């Protein structure tokens, strides 16, 4: 004999899948934004500029090279929260914005991984020569770390696009509360004066008229 699956277990499976995808999306989105913001504050490139006293060391943080990853990480965080504040088409649009934020972080970080513009500007300022460029240029791995953060945000957005329709919304708890029947007041016993006074205090007519 083959076991017949219980109807409740079959109905509960989509709910469990929704909870798992929700937890993974929250983890990926929050972690990705934190990684992108952290990487933007680290050293992305370094080199030297020729000055009168010799070689002058220069460094450029991610925020010096490009402000796109940090800005899109904040947008991604806002979109991650907004996913639970909207429903239906609105949720689909916000999930798309979340995915695009991650893709934008990846693109900006990878394009800027070998960029020398920020250090060239610092070299020109240090040397006083507008045509000066940075020498002994080298790059760190932090741009690629920022790209990983963008990838996590992108995955969170894709999960929201795929499973977001089954996720709960912030307003759901309050909407359920309005469906509860209102409590009906118990009739006042005319033989008990204390109940008559309580009804009068509540603004009710103890006679029931």
TrEMBL record:
InterPro entries: Trp_biosyn_TM_oprn/chp, Trp_synth-assoc_CHP. The chain crosses the membrane at residues 21-39, 67-86, 93-113, 141-161. Residues 174-209 are annotated as: Disordered. The keyword Transmembrane applies. Pfam families: Trp_oprn_chp. Keywords: Membrane, Transmembrane, Transmembrane helix. This is Putative membrane protein (TIGR02234 family).
